[in-house]
Design brief:
D-amino Acid Aminotransferase, Chain A, domain 1; D-amino Acid Aminotransferase, Chain A, domain 2; 5-stranded mixed beta sheet; binds pyridoxal-5'-phosphate
Length: 325
């Protein structure tokens, strides 16, 4: 496995892109001497299978100068996704590379960023045929990101519609955050010409699955529901965190097939992902009718999630973590 780390975070001096290639020995050496793990150039082969076929998976995490949010859950999903695609990665090595770079880059109070870990099966094979002994390529990149907390004020509006594009069903790939994202790209294109903040994507049986880059929860008669993603959709890290938070508060959290009608009749609805966290929806427009929602349930859940996340963030505090390096 080969790991490369790059940063698109702005430094004070200039807007620098720094890149490094890390071998296992180098990484271990760095973890002792704390030398920079960020260096000058990234090499991606034109024969890389992620580039040619989307043969890989990824995860995107929120981080600030103290912690990487839900870090262990992201690593777990990446490992599970890679296993499902039969890509052999060393998750501990990836963890160390992310932490080393994060400790180096995120030392300023104002730094907030998205960290993306991108895994490719590597180079080789004939056409789609898998190479005999692939060397997986891991790319870790740091991007500037805005604060994720949605401030609800009187003027707050988040408008949702339904995409014409329907997701295809593929149980072997469902749940995986794989690199084939053409459906989401077509849906984002649809969104560009509409007066909406996001779109609900349904499967071909018109069941609601998720939004363009987020999972969805609806509140109906005192219970939170989220769609099943066993046939299509992404099994979001934040979706699972919400389900676990609700369970820890002994609140009902139900995975269920949901229709557009359920969404129209819901009292509240929110979208969620690992960068935006909980995004309450104010309006849902469909077939010339507009549904408005009570956002108090979402705000209550936002508060509960913040408390629930605190211990996790202490465990993964970037600069106090003895377990890490
Ligand atoms: C299509 C799709 N569904 C769901 C999610 C939510 O996943 P996570 O909570 O892991 O960010 C994402 C995140 O980007 C996504 O792109």
């Amino acid at each position: 496995m080969k790991i490369q780390t790059l940063s698109y975070l702005q430094t004070q001096a200039d807007d620098v892109v720094k890149v490094e290639s890390v071998s296992k020995n180098r990484l271990l050496k760095n973890s002792i001497h704390r030398q920079s793990v960020i260096c000058e150039s990234v090499v991606i082969s034109p024969l890389d299978r992620a580039l040619n076929y989307g043969d890989g998976c990824f995860t995107t995490m929120y981080a600030n100068q103290t912690h990487i949010s839900l870090f262990h859950r992201h690593l777990q999903r990446l490992q599970t996704d890679a296993q499902k695609l039969m890509i052999d990665i060393d998750i501990n090595l990836i963890k160390q590379a992310v932490l080393l770079a994060a400790q180096e880059l995120l030392n300023d109070d104002t730094t907030q960023c998205a960290i993306k870990i991108h895994v490719s099966r590597g180079v080789g094979g004939r056409g789609y045929q898998l190479p005999d002994k692939p060397t997986p390529q891991v790319l870790i990149s740091f991007y500037q990101a805005n604060p994720f907390v949605t401030k609800l004020c009187n003027e707050y509006q988040y408008r949702l519609q339904v995409a014409q594009l329907q997701l295809s069903t593929q149980p072997r790939l469902a749940g995986i955050k794989h690199l084939n994202r053409l459906e989401q790209i077509l849906a984002k294109h649809e969104l560009q010409s509409l007066d909406a903040n996001d779109l609900l994507l349904c499967d071909q049986a018109n069941n609601v699955i998720e939004a363009t880059a987020a999972n969805v929860f609806v509140y109906i008669e005192n219970r939170w529901y989220t769609p099943d993603v066993r046939h299509c959709g992404v099994s979001g890290v934040f979706r699972q965190a919400v389900l676990d938070c609700l369970t820890s508060h002994k609140l009902p959290a139900i995975i269920k097939t949901l229709s557009i009608h359920d969404v129209q009749n819901a009292q509240s609805i929110f979208l969620c992902n690992a960068l935006a966290h909980i995004v309450p929806v104010s309006h849902f427009e469909h077939n010339s009718t507009t549904q408005t929602y009570n956002m108090q349930h979402c705000m209550d859940l936002q508060d509960a999630m913040q408390d629930w996340l605190l211990p996790e963030h202490q465990v993964w505090h970037l600069h106090n973590n003895k377990d890490v390096l």
